[in-house]
Amino acid sequence: MPWKAQHKEESRERILAAAAGYFTSRGFDAVSIDEVMQQAGMTRGAFYAHFSSKAELYAHAIRQAAEHGVEQLDRLATPQQRIDAYLSQSTNHHDAACPLACLVSDVAQRDDRVRATYTALLEGFLQRFQSGEEESGGRQQALMQAVAMIGSLAMARTVDDPELAAELLDAGRTLASNSASGCMMPQAPTSTPGD
After folding, report:
1. Distance from chain centroid for Cα 160
2. What does the DSSP 8-state code read for residue 110?
3. Torsion angle of the four alpha carbons 116, 157, 53, 64, in this order, in degrees rounded to the nearest 10
4. What three-state secondary structure class fits 92?
5. Alpha-carbon distance 175 to 185, whole Å?
6. What is residue 8's DSSP assignment?
7. How far apart are the first and last CA of the chain?
8. Measuring CA to CA, which residue among 157, 177, 176, 51 is closest to residue 104?
9. pLDDT digits 0-9 by tens, 131-189
10. Spatial contact of 48 and 138, defined as CB atoms under 8 Å apart
């Protein structure tokens, strides 16, 4: 029986890898279960042995895509190297990239489980960029970096002008780098969602 459990786990990983690539490049609505399963080398019927719905697959797939990105970033020694690597991802909207950037509006339209997954991934991203200090200054610095990095990559992937995309990434890199080095910008008034 151990082989069967191992085989099932390997099959699940193939499904997740296929889904992560498709979802991060095309979003939820443009991807079918049939496409994912074909890419994974399996039939649609095998899907339900692993996932109860496309939404469940989506939540797991964006987590896997983010974890793969984290593995790449964790290999880098300095915050600046992580900023540069993150902002060097493809801006071609057909290519897979960080789900925090390329799925931001897609996830906003999904169920609570998917949004909770995105929130947890964002919190993990923030922790990686937060200095060792537990005080609010470290968190604020990490939030500024995340907004600069995720926001500039999301916009660069959305526009159809390569020069503008490059300018957006450069601006994001500058803002994130300034935040990482402690060059804090003036504090804006605090707002709450829905203002």
Report:
1. 21
2. S
3. -70
4. coil
5. 9
6. H
7. 57
8. 157
9. 655 556 789 999 999 999 999 999 999 999 999 999 999 999 999 999 888 765 544 44
10. no
Token pair, residue 77, equals 């020694």
Residue 87, both tokens:
């902002």
What the block records as the tokens of 79 is 């915050």
In whole angstroms, what is the distance from residue 172 CA to residue 150 CA?
8
pLDDT tens by residue, 86-126: 999 888 777 778 899 989 899 999 999 999 999 999 999 99
Residue in the block written with tokens 């540069």: 84
What one-letter code names the amino acid at 157? Answer: R
Measured torsion, CA atoms of residues 65, 66, 71, 74, in degrees rounded to the nearest 10: 160
The half-sphere exposure of 125 on its side-chain side, counting CA atoms within 13 A, is 27
Q: Give the span between the Cα atoms of 168 and 149, in whole angstroms.
A: 10
Burial class (CB in 10 A: 0-12, 13-18, 19+), 14: middle
18's tokens: 């296929």
Entry pTM? 0.82
Q: Is the pLDDT of residue 62 over 60?
A: yes
Sign of CA dihedral 105, 21, 114, 29: positive
Residue 135: both structure tokens together: 């005080």
Question: CA torsion 104→150→145→172, rounded to 10°?
Answer: -140
